[in-house]
Amino acid sequence: MSTKTKNIKEVSISLDNLTISYKGSDAVRNVFCEMPKGKVTALIGPSGCGKSTVLRAINRMNDLIEDCTIKGRVLFEGIDLYSPEIDPVEVRRRIGMVFQQPNPFPKSIYENIAFGARINGYKGDMDELVETSLKKAAVWDECKDKLNDSGYSLSGGQQQRLCIARTIAIEPDVILMDEPCSALDPISTLKIEETIHELKNKYTIIIVTHNMQQALRISDMTAFFNAKIKEDSLEGKVGYLVEYEKTKNVFNSPKEKATEDYITGKFG
Length: 268
Hints:
- The protein is about 35% helix and about 25% strand.
- The chain is of the alpha/beta class.
- It has one domain (about 10-265): 3-Layer(aba) Sandwich (Rossmann fold).
- The radius of gyration is 19 Å and the shape is globular.
- It starts with 10 loop residues before the first strand and ends in a 5-residue tail after the last helix.
């Protein structure tokens, strides 16, 4: 695994010896990783290896889980996100999250975009913000004539792009995506991938995916996680980072045999 330190201006998120535990039991251990600005980083690996746990730590969503503790540091542009003076609500505004299942608010399409922006003190032209956000998420054409309809009136893929637009509207710097296409059909998945390609021109994107071809298609960097039996416990596994490199290197010339075995389908 490469441990070269990049210029801080080039790095968005740094994981510095990150260990995350639930009820005192490590779920993922000793992760070092620097995720570049303006790129897509994919987190891949078998179920239970800690990918989503790491993702949720980046915007402090794990704070909402009882008995979850972290050791090490999560840095955003050099700032420790877990410092006592840091407001986790502001962290979640700067680092947005798109979940596995589309989860629009039980409101109109328009209000799905406007609601969060309004709460965060947006004072500009709301109509313009709604249109711009929906366009960036590549769902404006399907929504522009029914902005007062419920967000639930949209198809699954459109709902997911609405959720991406909702995240964009509060002007984050980083967008986290936790398997955003796993509940979608192939055509909707392709549209989400095209949207991700467009979004990385302005945002840093970190995505958890089980789809190897998707990781290869959309990401610039790939982190492969695996899990092993805990040596200090009679049961259970702990996740760890096996390899983190440019995506083309991970898929074409992985350094670790476990990485090669996973991406060729020998396990996972």
